[in-house]
Design brief:
Helices cover 36% and strands 16% of the residues. It is built from eight helices and five strands, in the order H-E-H-H-E-E-H-H-E-H-E-H-H. Strands 3-2-1-4-5 form a five-stranded mixed beta sheet, with helices on both faces. Strand 2 and strand 3 form a beta hairpin. Helix 1 crosses helix 6 and helix 2 packs parallel to helix 8. The longest helix is centred in the first third of the chain and has 14 residues.
Length: 245
């Protein structure tokens, strides 16, 4: 692990440090970068093996996409990226990173490494704990004034209100949180939509509404929906293009 900052993290950092023990194995960047990005992916039991394979292929395809590579090249200082999987509380694993991406070779190598890695867990979903762990990883990276972003990818519909408090602390620490909810035509707090109803907006609230209300935050924060796991790669590409400009 990269040694923690020598100076105090501040009130928000102290709160986050109390939530997680930190992640082991991340090497910090050699110098300042234009963006530090944590790709935080939910691998809990709601995702079966076929879904997981689609997510992994989505990462491989997105980081091999010519438009994404061109956007990366538009950041002359490079982009530091880490891929982290999470499930239940205490089930958070740094799978790949920090990788410094600045061209086709580095981007494709990162995507291939993510795609090839085995699944780390398949427990419950602890959104708040996952977000706190990603924030700690960024803080321990000692990126200074570099723009810092956490991407949350999940099909979870709620976590009892815990994630909103963590989100507020993370944003106070200067980190932006964006999200890719995999909506799968689900309604927060309700059963499946009636037969023939295909919109993710069935009922009075959606998973996307939950992520807008409880998860994202910080300057320019946004949600991009994936209609199902088959559409994850396309949503990831759209999200990356927005973040890399």
């Amino acid at each position: 692990m990269v040694p923690p900052r020598g100076e105090a993290m501040g009130k928000a950092g102290v709160l986050l440090a109390g939530l997680v023990a930190g992640l082991v194995g991340a090497a910090g960047p050699a110098k300042a970068v234009d963006l530090a990005l944590v790709l935080l992916t939910d691998v809990s039991r709601s995702m079966d093996d076929a879904d997981y394979a689609l997510v992994k292929e989505g990462y491989r395809a997105a980081f091999a996409d010519p438009e994404v590579i061109a956007a990366l090249a538009g950041n002359p200082g490079g982009v530091a990226v880490a891929y982290v999987e999470f499930s239940g509380r205490g089930e958070v694993a740094l799978i790949q990173g920090w990788d410094l991406l600045r061209d086709a070779a580095s981007a494709q190598a990162f995507g291939a490494a993510v795609a090839a890695a085995p699944r780390s867990a398949a427990g419950n979903t602890a959104l708040g704990a996952g977000i706190a762990s990603a924030a700690r990883l960024l803080q321990d990276g000692n990126f200074g004034a570099t723009r810092q972003v956490i991407d949350v990818a999940s099909d979870e519909t709620g976590d009892g209100g815990r994630s909103a408090q963590v989100r507020d602390q993370v944003v106070a620490a200067g980190i932006t949180i964006n999200a890719i909810p995999v909506v799968r035509n689900q309604l927060v707090g309700a059963g499946a939509a009636p037969q023939g109803v295909t919109t993710a907006r069935w009922g009075s609230g959606s998973i996307a509404d939950f992520y807008e209300r409880e998860i994202i935050g910080g300057p320019g924060a946004f949600v991009i929906e994936a209609s199902d796991y088959g559409a994850f790669g396309a949503a990831l590409k759209r999200k990356l293009l927005l973040e890399l400009i």
